[in-house]
């Protein structure tokens, strides 16, 4: 079986091998044939050590495919079902799930420490307990969420992470108000989804902020009312809000420096929504006076900040209705053999989302 493997944390290239085997199949598990997977910046963050992940590992967590085998005790799934891979499944029994905060369930993270692949040289892990840069993967049944037949695999793959994360940040976490002003810092795939979420919510002004010109141009096509380079944010704030600051600012980069910029451009009493996944040693600081005096809400958003299954259904409904554009978010399509070219395109900002077709 072919798969793209990172041998050591810190390497910037993946090796596509044909001697990988998906393991761990048994009760409560399903075997999936991956048909399409998106390249998410979190995969790169795991490769360079920003996000913790044992190695060697197979990146990829934004995937879709078909069920090819079902373990004992699995209900609600049949061989041949089309599914989206959910890298953060809810167990339904932990305190977070019982409170209705299923996006905070840790059951899925526990799988990240168990190898679900092997090679002749030893065990191989799957990123976030999945690992979709491969032809087949074995996952818990809860990681395989059925999708309607009319949803293409590449669209379903995007919904598996980036779209759900960005849309949910605007709709679930920040609950953007109609007629409000919004700034989105970082306009890759997740940032574009946040822009679309703010548009769906009825925001009047949506300012896209990104250093890459092509991403700024793309943001305008997806609903931003204007797009600026980072150095132009101050001018946009002055023109649009009279210098007060935006009602909602989304940080979709995952760095303390951009989080601080986002905080400073949020109006007093406004909402700063942290969407980017950053490093454990990168500390965001506010002083105690401004924290009290500005009364800004600082809201982290994990995987869209709401029930994941409901978020999938909502994304599909909005896509079907033409309220959000998911097809155009896929700017590049490559076979698995082209994965390193796709990584380079992501690092330079050339791509919004790359679909890896298997």
Terminal CA distance = 11 Å
Rg over CA atoms, rounded to whole Å, is 20 Å
Specify the structural class: alpha/beta
Chain-averaged pLDDT: 96
Tell me roughly what share of residues is in helical segments: 25-40%
Overall description:
With 358 residues, the chain is α/β, with parallel strands linked by helices. It is 29% helix and 26% strand. The protein has twelve helices and 19 strands. Helix 5 runs parallel beside helix 6 (189-200) and helix 5 (162-173) crosses helix 11 (308-320). The protein is globular and about 60 Å long.
Question: Which key terms come to mind for this protein?
Answer:
19 strands, 12 helices, 26% strand, six-stranded parallel β-sheet, 358 residues
In short, what is this structure?
This protein has helices at 41-47, 95-98, 107-110, 153-159, 162-173, 189-200, 213-221, 233-241, 256-264, 288-294, 308-320, 339-348; strands at residues 3-5, 15-17, 21-22, 29-38, 57-58, 62-70, 82-85, 117-119, 122-126, 136-140, 144-146, 181-185, 205-209, 226-228, 246-251, 266-274, 297-300, 330-335, 353-357. It is α/β, with parallel strands linked by helices and 358 residues long.
